[in-house]
Each structure stands twice: as structure tokens, then as C-alpha cells.
Amino acid sequence: MQQRQAPLTPAQERLWFLHRLNPEDASYNVYLVSRLTGPLDRDALAEAFTDVVARHGALRTTFREVDGRPVQDIGPARPCEIEYLDLAQAGSGPAEQRARELVAARTNQPFDLTASAIRVSLLRLSADDHVLCVVLHHIIADGWSCDLLHTEVSALYNAATAGAPPLPPPAAQFADYASRQSAPDAEALDYWLTQLAEPPVLALPTDRPRPPAATAAGDIVLRELPRAVADRLGLLAREYRCTQFMALLTVYQILLARLSGQRDLCIGCPVAARDDVEWENVIGYFTDTVVVRADLSGDPTFRELLAQTRASLLSALNHRAVPFEQLATKLGIERDPHRNPLFQTLFVLQTTGTPGATGGAALSLHGIEAQWFESGYRQAKFDLMLDMGVDRGMLLGAFCYRTELFDRASVERIADRWEALVAAIVAEPDVSVWRLPLLVGGELEQLLAWGDGGPLDVPETVPESVARTVAARPDAPAVVCGETVLSYAALSRRADELAAQMRAAGAGPGDLVGICVPRSPDLVAAPLAAWRIGAGYVPFDAEQPDTYISQQAKGAGITVMIGPAGVTACPGAARKVPGTAYVVHTSGSTGRPKGVVISQAALAARVTWMVSHYELSPDDRVVQFASAAFDTFAEEVWPTLAAGATVVLLPDGPASLPEVLAANQDVTMLDLPTAYWHSLVEAANGFDWPPRLRLTIIGGEQVGASAVAAWRSRFGERVRLVNTYGPTETTIIATTAELAPAAAPTTAPTATPAQAGPPPIGRPVGGTYIYVLDDSLNPVPVGAAGELCVGGSGVADGYLDPPESSVSSGFVSDPFRDGAPMYRTGDRARWRPDGMLEFLGRLDRQLKVRGFRIEPGEVQTRLRSCPGVFDAVVAAHEDSLVAYTVGTATAAEVVAHAAEALPRHLVPNAVVPLDALPLTRNGKVDLGKLPEPRYTVPTGTAFVAPRTETEKLVASAWTEVLGLSRIGVHDDFFAVGGHSLHVTRVIGRLRVAAGVEVPVRALFEAPTVAELATVVEELLLAEIDGMSAAERELLLAADRESEGAS
Predict the structure, then answer these.
(1) How many CB atoms lie within 10 A of CB 80?
(2) What is the pLDDT of residues 1003-1026, one digit of tens each?
(3) Sign of the CA dihedral running 474, 476, 480, 484
(4) Burial grade of 999 (CB within 10 A; 0-12, 13-18, 19 or more)
(5) For 719-746, how does the pLDDT look when each residue is reduced to its tens digit (9 = 90+)?
(6) Residue 489: CB atoms within 10 Å
(7) What is residue 293's predicted lDDT score, i.e. its pLDDT?
(8) End-to-end Cα separation, the chain, in angstroms
(9) Neighbours of 589 (CB within 10 A)
(10) Which of 32, 492, 834, 974 is most buried as measured by Cβ atoms within 10 A of its Cβ?
(11) CB atoms within 10 A of CB 601
(12) 10 Å Cβ neighbour count for 413?
């Protein structure tokens, strides 16, 4: 039989490309490992394998490239090489243990597809005890082929040893099938372009960030469905004319949706492509993969979703013959070498055999008992996939996962949730899939315990606390403002004077009093005065426009206004809000500020906890930094006075903080917006920090790990650093975290879950209940993202003018505390395995760039971990993702750091270095004032012709392969129409033109002409460095000769 050459099928081309991308990847190995007990005839077994290899050209196939295109060479028949190892004579320990080690080494060993795609090993444990290990690359065999191989080896062995009839010759070869592949029809292509427009990226909660150089290292968690549950699921499927596959796929869709919080999912499903009986007995890779997109929007039941899955799957099967690479290119999806562009998880159902293994038909050798043997295979094609099988009537599930991302315990919990979902579905198939139980093994109790801030004894209101301090320490300093010092007694007298003026102007119990005074002792006295007449106060920033203040005052229905000129009555209808401590206005999504009503009871609870947790005492001096119109003002002032300590005002606002700190060397506590604190940390060496400083509180933005590390290097453990979180609607704060050095994150694969990710926002304060819930207000599992919701004593009384819908306002009933009030913050968070909360950004701040939905928090967290970056934010500008950074890191360093751990679409196209991020009056980042980007990182929008000989060489290869008239040095290979099958052709042309072997991965990591030209030059220099002196001289002589000829 002569050597034959054939093209690759589109499915094979994908596997060939993945092999070229990472030749050390063994995740596409398939294997058959059997333990053979009995008198094995080794010669007959070898003859059987030789005959099977001779019968099927796929088993004699190797792969290579011709002009950048892959081809398969089917070699002539020859004896099958079987590795034989006699472990009984090896004397290196127990034979069975040694066999397990050897089998694992072989199943996890990658192939050199240019040499062979099959390995056969026979391990002798004793005279009548052997282990047979057959490993193939998936590019030559699918699951059906593995069954067929075992069946034919059995038949041929039995023919040689027991006189069984020989097998008839195969009617066809896989090369025949490959040669008949035709181009996809236009209708199928149009179907997929519509079906997969803007495909979602699956965002599963992982234990660790994705490492820069991901591998396929994996493991498997096995589960077995009880027979009764499996039978009832089968009955449910048949009721709707659905297959077992459809029902199990629907369950997997629900599991992923509940874990990720996503209602739009794409799952890959391999299906057999043996549409013609001609191919039934042919070994080869007869597999197509279809993408099933699930829509879980609304409130579907399992029955409804099952019907949708059936329709989607049948439609996908009718249009399946479209190469993924062509689809991805036409859809304009950016490439990431670590992720499939169309789906990031796979669902498989094997009709026979054990899931997580390959091949179901066991060997049936005359006189031999054959059983499956542990393969030791530890590879994962995807972050997570579910491989199911039917074994002796039992439904088994294997959850295959990447160990770099998941701990085994986490996948064990995922498998537990899957079992719980199936049981709940068969019991109540008409319940919304979003209300099916997902938490298992006491997890709900654990989450509720983590979210319980504990009981809080609140003995008195804040006015009562201040009055007690006045009586106990009348001469102690209460407020310092520049050279002015007010004792507690003087502060109380001033509050009485203002209270009398308020009454004279018509204010009384239940009214709201406006306060708009400059930074002075009256900023503290005026709220006390309002409380003394039974009113609440509404603070305004004196620097805000008069028109704005007038509009808000009128909308709040205040009775009187305290301003620089004194107390004046306000015209209009007064509003009665009894029991109110204050009303703070926050920005609303409609553009109209919302007045948040904070009760005396809520403020008292928060102040009581702060005095205790911050360990405030009369010896403390606390800087009042925030605008009075911001709720942090209450955190700075009222716990300080309740503890008998001193409030230090900033006469000229935040700008005067350095001067005030230098003058007030006894300052012990700072309460700063995170963004402002970041800027101070960057300038730490040139800043006069008070020697008695013992506590710094930050909040309002995600804190940067680099800033925490810089802070700790400056202060060590001497100064407490407390990260706080809380919307205005939850009375200043709801959670806190002590940021010790251990809080600094790491992206190392060996990091514990507590170390992975950004610094946490901690746990709830006393009297507070914290939940992380899905859209249906169900608790999400540990590690899964959900909406952070807050209940307890700090929840505000609502808004002055609430929306008609309580849902749109955010105030709803607490589903876990008999309908008590709860606030939906609109923030994304997750519980870490150590019981700490991690902030993930706003639900409504997703960006969309080039069709990708981007969560800014994910990118910003990575940027802030870059050495030399103290703070960073990202924003969308036209069709680019722009990073704004503060620090010493260069644009190139920032981009390189991001590219190490983020997919390409999350890597900023431009980096704008700033001296400081623009801040609002309240110290938060003012996104509206970010400057127009200066593209310090090329975006590819402007054409720049190739400049160097290497750039011209690279550009020439691109234009030839892509059929373009010109290529600029900043053009992105994939953006101008390249896909993975083009990559190998470009590599082939560069091999011929430059004489270097450019790794396939290089084009993903350096996708522009300029970047790839740099890679080529580095390879050429490395090759020259490895030459001997004589070889270099020959090279120079050839170069001189070439120049002379020209």
C-alpha cells in the first residue's frame, strides 16, 4: 500500500492549529486503558493491532505543512510498534503502582504529529496480569473510532487464538471522507452569523485569576446520578419528545447560568458526523461541534427551557457544517489563544463507557477478563466541561476542570449543585429555573452567618451621646478650625443659639432644616441645633451653584435655611419627616438627585458601632475632610463627638489637608476617599504624616493593591488601614476590612483563595445583614458574582420622593428577615472562600468596545496590580478601551502587565498617564473630566507603511496570505481578516523568507506587523548568537556577496 496524501477536514484543521499553537498540549489525547487478566497471547495481540492499523489509514497518518497549509500523509502498512515493559522483573516497587505511573505518563504525553498519532504500550504485571494502554491524538480518532478499534482488535485477536472468522475489508477510508469535504453553503453561514452575533463570554467564578501562561493541566470530579432521578429525567424528556442528551444539556445550561449569573450562554456540543452508512466502520475524526445558545431571560421553567433547547439543537444540527474559524472571522471576534472564540465550555454525552475517559466498548478477548484501568489522564480542554456517560444503565457525570483556575473543593461543590438541580428539576419541572435550589450542604446557613454583622446594643441617640459628653467634659476641645477652638460647652451654647433662631423662623419637630455654611464651627453646631428642635438637617455644599442649592432646597421642602447670613425662612410647602437625622442628596440615574432619608435610629446604630470598632477615645483628633453634603461627614463628626474626641476642620477644604496635618501634629485619624488616598500614598515621601496617626479609613472606590503595599512599606503595622464600603442608602458604610499586608493580592497559581483578587471590602458592620443575590433574590454560591444587598438597622427610610416602583428605588423587602427593609445596591460582589466580600464594580457600568461587554472593575484591578501604578480607571472612547493611570509605570509596561493575564479585548488600546485622577468634591473619580486619550499605545487606526526590512518581510507575508493590497505596521492581523488557519500559512512564508521558525503563539501575542517583526528579529539574533565563529563568518560573506550582486 503506497503513501497517500489528503486534505484535512475543517474539524481536523482546528485541532492541527491548536497543536501548532502549543505542541506541549496533551488535552486532545484520547486513550483506552485496559487491565487484562488471563493467559494473554502477546503475538496474537501484536498481530491484531498490526492488522487494525493496516485496515485503517487514519492510524497510519502523520501531518505536515505544505506551503503553509496542513496535509495528512497516510503511510504504508507495516507492523504496529508495541512498547513492552515487564514490570514483574523491574524490581522498582509494586507492579500495579508502577503501572499506574507509566500509564499516566503516556496518556499525558503530547504527540509529535509529524511522526505519529498513536502509541500502544503493554505492561506485564505478572504472567497472567497485563495493562494495555492505547493513546491516540483526537485528530485521527473520535469516540466512535475508539469503540471500533477495541471491537476490531478483539475480533482479530479471537480469529488468531480461537478460530473466529476474519473481518471483511473496510469499505472506505477516512481520507475519502476528508477529500469529499465541500465549502459550507451560504444559508448555513448566514444562520450562524445571526445565531452567534455578539456571543457572550462565559464568566465562571474561579478560585484564582487566569495565569499569564495558561496550560491544560486538569483534573476530574466524578458524580453518579441516582437511578430513580435519572429515570424520572428520562421520562420528562420523552414527554416533550426530547432526547436524554437534550434534557441533560438543559440542566447544564441552568447550572452555568446560576453559577455565572448570565442569562445568555453558548455551549459547544460535539456530534457525530457519520451521516452516511459508508462511514460507520471507518476509524477517523468524524466529529462536528455545534454551538447551542441558551436564552434564560425572563423566568423560564425547566419544561420551557427544554423545549427551547430542543429547537436550538435541532436547528444547529441542520446547519452544522460551517468551520468555526470562518465564523469567528466574519463575526469580528478578537482572538485569545487561551479561549475558544465562540464557546468556553463543552457538554458531551457518551452512549457507552465511563465519562472522563474515551471509548466505551471494552475489549473482548478469548480467555481474558478485560476491565478498565485508571488512566491517570489529567488534562482539560476548557476551564470547565461536563462529560457524561451511561455505564450499566447508570448516568455518570465527569466535571473536567483546569487546576490553575479551580480548587478541587470548588468543583466538588459545582458537582454537588448539579446533583441538587437535577433532583429539584424532576421533582418540580414547572418551577422557574432561577428559583431552583442551588446551595448545598449547609451553604445557605454559612452565607447567612457570614453576612450577619451580629447584634448591636444602641443605648442612646447621637444627640443624647453628644449631650452626655457636654455634661462630662464641658471644657474639652470639641471643634478645631484653624486658630479657633470650641469646647464642648461652647459648641453646645452655639447650638442652642441656632436652635432658638430656627424656632423663631418657624421650624419645629419633624421639619427639615437646610444647612449651607462654609467650613467653620457652625458646620458642626447647626446639625446639633436642628436636632434640638426635633428637626432633621439637609446639608448643602456652600461651593455648589446657588441655583442648584435653591432647587434642591425647594424639592426637599425645608422650613428654614442656615447660611452665612444667618437663619432665614424658606417659602413653599414644608415637609414633615419625623425621626429624621439628616437627608443627603445622591446623584440619580434620571439626572435628578435623590434625597436619602436617614433616621436617628439608623445613625445611632452606625455611630455606636464606629465608636467601638474604631476604638475612639477623648484623646483622638479626627480630621473632617468630606463635604458636609456627603454622608462621610457624618462618619467623621458624630462618632468623634460621641466619644468626646476632637473634630479638626479644614478651613479651606481638602486642598488644605497637608497644611493642617503639618500644623496639627496630634491628628490620630483620617477618613479619606480612596482615590484621594491613592494620590497621597504616591506622594508619601514628600508628605508630612502626623506622628500620632493610628487609623486611616478609606472608601468610595476599589483600593489598589500597589497602594496598599506602598502604605505598608511606609507605616508597617503602626497605622490601621480600614477599607470601607457602603452606599448612602445604608447609612455611610455597611462593611469594613482591615487591610493588613496579607490583603495584597497575588496572581500566582499557588495563591490561596484568600490571597487571589483585589483587597476585600470585608464583612458587615454590627447590626447589618449582607447578602450577595441573583436577579431573583436568591443567594449565589461562594465565589459567584451577584448583587450586593444590605439589610439591618442602617437601611435608610427611603427617598424623599421615591419612584413609583420599590424595585427601581432599590428598597425592597428582605426575603430572609420577615419582610424587613433591604437595599439593592446595584453593585457586583462575591463571597470569597475565607468569608470576605470582594467588590467587583457596578452592575450598570459595563462598557461595550468592539462588540465586547467589558466590566471595568476587572481591568482596573489588573492595572492597579502593575508595579508603578498607584491608581487607574478605564473608559470607552469611540472604539477603544482607554486606561488612565497614575504612577511611574510607562504605557508599554501597563499594557504588557495587562496582556499577561487578560484576554486581548480587555487590554487597553491606549494609556493616558496622569499626575492625578480628576476627583469630584466628594473625592471620587470624576469620569466626566477624564481627558481625551493620547494614543501612547498604537491603535492601528492610522496607516503607517513598513519601515524596516523585517517589517516589509512580515507585511509581504500577510498581504500574500490575506489577499490584501497593503498592510500597515500597526494593523492587527485578526482585525484585517486573519484567522488561525491563516496563521500557519504566514508562519510558513516567514520560515522560507527569513529562515526562522516563528511559534504560532507569537502571532497572537504580537498581532501587528511591528510587533511580529520584533519577534522575527529576536529569533534571528538568537540564531546568530548560537552560531560558531566560522558559521558567522560564512553568513557575513554571503551577505557581502549579496550586496555586491545588487
Answers:
(1) 19
(2) 877 888 888 888 888 887 777 676
(3) positive
(4) middle
(5) 999 999 999 999 999 999 999 754 444 3
(6) 15
(7) 96
(8) 50
(9) 10
(10) 32
(11) 16
(12) 21
Residue pLDDT, tens place only, 79-92: 999 999 999 876 55
Beta strands in 607-732 (DSSP E): 621-624, 646-649, 669-673, 695-699, 720-725
Of all residues in the chain, what percent are helix, strand and coil, respectively (each to 5)?
A: 35, 25, 40
Q: In a 3-state reduction of DSSP, which class is residue 231?
A: helix
Torsion of CA 967, 973, 974, 976, to 10 degrees: 0
pLDDT at 751 > cutoff 60 = no
d(CA 1024, CA 639): 71
- In terms of Cα–Cα distance, which of 173, 206, 179 is closest to 59? 173
Place of cell 553568513: 1035
Find which of 67-71, 685-689, 973-977 is predicted with most confidence, using mean pLDDT. Answer: 67-71
201: its cell numbers: 463570554
The per-type count for the chain, helices as H runs and strands as E runs, is 29, 39
Distance CA 922, CA 924 (A): 6
* Residue environment code for 163-191, b if the CB has 16+ CB neighbours within 10 A, otherwise e: eeeeeeebeebbbebbeeeeebeeeebeb
Task: Find the helix or strand (DSSP H, E) in which 882 lies.
Answer: strand 880-887
Instruction: Determine how β-strand 477-481 pairs with β-strand 646-649.
Output: parallel
DSSP annotation of 110? P
Grid cell digits, residue 661: 496635618
CB within 8 Å of 652: residues ≥ 6 apart: 519
Instruction: Determine the Cα–Cα distance for residues 200 and 581; give it in Å rounded to an integer.
Output: 46
Query: CA angle 1036-1037-1038, nearest 5°?
Result: 90
642: enclosing H helix or E strand = helix 632-642
Does the pLDDT value for residue 48 go beyond 90? yes
**Centroid of chain to Cα 107:** 31
Would the pLDDT of 445 be above 90?
yes
Q: Which amino acid is at 729?
A: E
Is there a contact between 268 and 290 (Cβ–Cβ < 8 Å)? Answer: yes
2: left (phi over 0), alpha (psi -120 to 50) or beta: beta
Write a three-state SS string for 1017-1029: HHHHHHHHHCCCH
CA 390 to chain centre: 33
CB atoms within 10 A of CB 441: 12
Distances (CA, A) of 252 to 268, 387, 692: 12, 11, 57
The three cell numbers locating residue 833: 472562600
Residue whose C-alpha is closest to residue 791's, from 457, 452, 447: 452
Q: Which residues does 205 contact at the CB level (< 8 Å), separation at least 6?
A: 259, 260, 781, 783, 784, 785, 830
Residue 906 CA, distance from chain mean position: 11
